[in-house]
Predict the structure.
Amino acid sequence: MKHARTGKFRGGFTSLELVLVMFLSAVLIGAVVISYGALVRAQPKVSSMASVPLGSARVQHYYGASGTSRNVPVAPHYGMLALAEELREQFLHDVISATAVFCLPRESHNAWRPSRIPWSSLEHEELDTPQKFRAHVIAAAGVPASLYRDYRNPLGTSETTPSPNATIFILGFSKSEGHLSVSSIYDVDVVRFTGAAEPQGFHASVKRYAPKPAALDDEPLVYSSGYEVFFPPSNPVARVPADWSSDDFTPLFVTFERSSRLSVREGAAIDRFKTAAERPFYFIWWPDPAMRHLGMQTNTAAPATPQHSYNHMAGRTAFMFTVPMFPAL
């Protein structure tokens, strides 16, 4: 038995329903737009791009490129922050698979990036400190003594000022007898500009160099990735360099030596870093593109402690690493 329909079927919406839906949609979209606008306005903005006169030697040795200047984003810059995050992951991956890591300080730009270094266990001594590694590359590879500083932590020698630049050698397993294999090299450079016709501030960069595809055994490493950013002075009304003379980004690293080295007393400035129970290790810092400047932070550590040499780095960067000197051992 069929039931009779009591009313007609209505297809679609009435005009009143459509108007109500459109009104509610407009309110919702408007709220989203307002919230997004507030979020965007709350984020720091990139003020400009700086044309940084690095000079032809730096441009060539940094990036393997020609020219004398680079157009660099002014900090803070979140595009460069993303590149820095990618480089951090690559650095940690390189360290995990390394046989040794040696950090050497520099004053000038780096021009030496070998894929392998002569070394024989029968002819050469053990390379268990950055200082011995530096002495070895000078003697066995012909590296100029002026390229890397003979430096042993802040206030550790007569040269008390940390270098503004550093090179990190990542060594790997070698397939060639009589050679050390260089898996990658990281250069950290912070260049200060104070000239009247120059942008006032710092060009900071971290660059990775690795073997190029199908490279021969003796071919040098080439630029593979990195990031760069320009930091303006911490004093926003600076008129002369003296207004921001305390701005810098040092030390780039400190080395903690084995505690067994306390058997030879070398003075409190050096001995305070002899705290590693087993392997020596580094604290390493990279410039942070998310920071606004490189202004000095207050140092609250006691002078007799190792923390006094790097306590002021706290809060200046999110890129801080603890790296063993011999990761794969």
The radius of gyration is 28 Å. The chain has one domain: 49-324.
